[in-house]
Amino acid sequence: MQLLPSARALTAAAVAVATLVTGxxxxxxxxxxxxxxxxxxxxxxxxxxxxxxxxxxxxANGGNRAHGRAGYQASLDYVKAKLDAAGFTxxxxxxxxxxxxxxxxxxxxxxxxxxxVVMAGSxxxxxxxxxxINDNGSGSSAVLETALAVARSGYxxxxxxxxxxxxxxxxxxxxxxxxxxxxxxAERAKISGYLNFDMIGSPNPGYFVYDDDPTxxxxxxxxxxxLGIATEIETEGDGRSDHxxxxxxxxxxxxxxxxxxxxxTSAQAAKWGGTVGQPFDRCYHSSxxxxxxxxDTALDRNSDAxxxxxxxxxx
Length: 315
Prior knowledge:
Helix 2 (about 45-60) packs antiparallel against helix 3 (about 70-85), helix 2 packs across helix 4 and helix 4 (about 135-155) packs across helix 10. The chain has about 325 residues and is of the alpha/beta class. Residues about 1-35 have low confidence and may be disordered. The longest helix is centred in the middle third of the chain and has 21 residues, at about 135-155. The chain is globular and about 45 Å long. The chain has an 8-stranded mixed beta sheet, with helices on both faces. The protein is built from 10 helices and 8 strands.
């Protein structure tokens, strides 16, 4: 969903005066760069096309895309091929979990200050019991489409952009932890912010924002305020997704979440619509987490919010 021009202008202005992700002050900074283009609207049809591909991959590979299995490898191949064709520099990081070989996919967009890296990531694996379309095809597909939007627009931010798809999250954040542990302290210090997206299309959705780094949190809240959508602090998944290894290593983190197996309250339904007393995602970690298990409006809004944050935080 695209912001109305007035709302986008308001949110852009709000973020422009915010403290930098690294905690530095605007005062005394170098002369401003020329105004960068606003973040593009992320086409929901493109995000859903990626989800359809992930569903097809799961269907052809035993009904899942789990770590160490053929469905995960095919998912990885699909995402990597899209990024390679778009001009990203990609690499695979190998690790072992539960006796199986796993992989993270890291994609760097050429250019930008390599000492100031903005990362956006999501886990690409599913549980063994289902195809994992909301958990976490939704985050993986939206991050992929945001990366492809960077390439289509030729965006050249001041900071360096890096995107990641993690393996073996469902086994305990194994892939993201392996990545963070592979970095020396100097490399970790170069990451000015890591944005995590794990379940953003829940069928009975909420709009939850991580309350970790204040600047990242404010960026997302400003975006949704521009749409007139109230948000809540994310607590259900706190520490249970791939932002945790980054946070524990001192990297500023933030992200979005639309809810898992917690149940929607009457106050939340009054704000967001949906069904009181039902889980945000009744198919969480189940075989019914298919392409039918997605709320298009939530997926659209959250996908656009991802792009907005990537653009704003990398200027």
